[in-house]
Input
Amino acid sequence: MLKRILIANRGEIAARIAKTCRQLAIEYVAVYSDADSNAPYLRGATASVHLGSSLATESYLNQSKIIAAAIAQGCDSIHPGYGFLSENATFARAVQEAGLIFIGPRADTIDSLGDKARAKVLMQKAGVPTVPGTVEATEDVDVIIAKTLEMGFPVLLKPTAGGGGKGMQIVRAAPELREAAEQAIRLARANFKDGALLVEKYIENPRHIEVQVFGDQHGNAVHLFERECSLQRRHQKVVEEAPAASISLATAMHLRESAVRGAQAVGYVNAGTFEFIVDSNGDIYFLEVNTRLQVEHPVTEEITGLDLVEWQIRVASGEPLPLAQSQIHQQGHAIECRVYAEDASNDFRPAPGTVIRLEWPSDTRVDAAIEAGNEISPFYDPMIAKLIVRGADRADALVAMQRAVAETIILGTTTNLGFLGKILSDPAVSANDIHTRYLDQNLTRYNRNVGRSAAAACAAAIALPYRTASDDVPSTPWIASTPKAVFDRVTIDPSGVLGRVAYWANGDLLKVAIRDYSAASGAQIGCEGEEFVVTIGSREGGLFRGLLNGQPWSAIQVDGNIEVLAAGDRVVLEPYISRCGSDGVSAGTATAPMPGVVVVVEVTAGDVVTQGTTLVVVEAMKMENRVMAHCDGTVTAVLCRVGDNVGVGDVLVELEPA
Ligand code: ADP
Output
């Protein structure tokens, strides 16, 4: 058995692997970058090693530093987690060459399955159904056109070196083909340094269903059933379930047998995921193998009762698979929701920041990277937690997940909790009538922050006098700390309004009328033509919580503003009076829109620019944000350099408007 593992990752997956190490009484070494020096996953580690600066290339992607740390700390093995170096064959090989065990598949397996074209050929030979199309990737547009015409529309042009759904193009008719192919090649060259494309039949509205497999070093391979991951946004999974309730047992068997056959054909060792798409006829098409533990592995653990990280460690130690196929059973239904620090109402922009209040739901498995007080770093993936529930069946699990999302409180930073809540209450989702493009096609219904007027109503309720159970003295917690005019209390006026309050929310003024109030039934509050019944249940340590039309809400006060979380949407409300004319920057100043790192500076002092010219590019959480000139003018000063860490509102470039 392994004795000391270096966990070459961060965040929730580092914490997840650590948990199993502790259970198995295996020592483990954690690694961290500057940004993670106080991260929760470091606690409890036998030792922790600082790798370098916050840039992933200097830390979690730095192969030699990681291997050197493992050797210096006396580790016998390295667990790569997911992302970062987990599917890097060069790394797996280097780990082995350093005399350590790589907890994952063999390097040559990672190599051969990492290339979509090679993987497809291998699977075809093993008798696994693949998507009709080419198996030889090409950059020759004429070949692509010929293959397409031979096969018929619609087709999908897919970069063979791609990942994360990037750079794929659907082509539906001949006139668009040449241009689409040229563009796809250009994009693939730019993104993956390899322009070669595969041409595949495009399967309309498929489901994404994947099979968890495990192989050991003794030639055994088993499956741990399937997961459905069709709820995706731009090919990024958002909600995952196990089992796949949408398919027949015959289709499920076909998937499982195919995956195990594929795993056996390549002598697969350790955990792997065979990804398929399934069409409405139940026909299955192999897509790719992910040669690592997946983000969504917990749903498989929940229905099988197995610990996949333990299996990975045992297999890497040379033990046979802990169970034979006939001993592996599934029960119930599990759902996972990925909680991202991103703003759904603002094109899902990453939302780094400091978590001020954090409350996880009861009766829910939470695999989290964060704790209250933590800063969500702009350097890495914005996924901050996974909520996982299990129910007797899918309907049961959906109800449990709706409750879990509603009970989660994350304040101080924006998350996708509201987006998740809307997905879970969609009738098409309950009816399981979805496909991989369903979320993208329905985004406009989902990404709106509907909580603004509701949030203002909650904020107003806080301003009301109320009694707590223990304390019979009426108190007005808010009035004391905000200017008097904010709560313009009138005893009873002819319109039946008790009081009026106004708040700024994202530049708009929201006027709130408090119509009625009783300690027993709460406040009746109107805002923007909507009516709400708001109660305050408790206020502990600065956290207010209650019910808004029967649904939980919560709020805190930060820097004189009120932050409300209602239906999962976070709204920051600025009391009307506190706005004192300092708003806005002059047209001649370009500021950072979010915390991040300057990756490109496009101008120098003296440059003449026009409105909309990109001045600087700031990267945060793998997304590039262009900072543009607000007006025509001349650059008078460039106040940042490539590599600088910048905060929201930092002035990057100054212009003399023309
Ligand atoms: P990547 O490695 O970029 O994630 P995949 O081949 O795994 O690429 O495909 C990503 C997603 O794209 C799949 O989950 C599926 O939704 C969609 N997709 C891929 N190939 C096809 C196809 N031939 N027809 C329809 N959808 C496809």
